[in-house]
Amino acid sequence: MIGGRTAVNDNPRLALRNGGARAETEAVMRTSPRIALWLRLALVPLVAAIVLAGIWVAGGLLTNDFRLSMLLTAVWLGIAGLAALAVAVRWRPLALPVLGTVLVTAGSVMGYLLYASSVDKVVDEQVAVAAPSPEQAEREQNVALGHGG
To answer: Is 113 or 133 the better-scoring residue by pLDDT?
Structure first.
């Protein structure tokens, strides 16, 4: 016995032969909380909606300043990421639906916002313009020529 354990449990090959690893895994699975599949799947759109609503509030509703809205959005994504990480650590079965949804949603929205704010589309086309009214045409004349100067 070494530290309260037998030497057989210290050797992984012997532990597998004796079913020790399987028994330990089953014991861990019995103690971990069971969360229904429907609940894990229902969390995906709920978490995505919360992340999107937070981005909308932080980036669009709180301020009209571009730099401040970027800062608030980054702060919101940091808070959402830390909350998702806390949920993933506390409830392991929820790690993939919650943390994965936050990462995919935040990455997609940030990619779109980066593209939309950094790529300009220039349209160079001829636009039909009506002739100016006679009163407007008189006002737009050169004032110095209109007075004989």
So the answer is: 113
Helix axes 100-118, 66-90, angle to 10 degrees: 170
The tens digit of pLDDT for each residue in 10-55 reads 555 555 555 555 555 555 555 556 878 888 888 899 999 999 999 9
Q: Specify the residue for token string 């004796």.
A: 18
Contacts of 68 (CB under 8 A, 6+ apart): 62
Model pTM greater than 0.90?
no
List residues bridging with 2 in a β-sheet. 5
Q: How far apart are CA 141 and CA 133, in angstroms?
A: 13
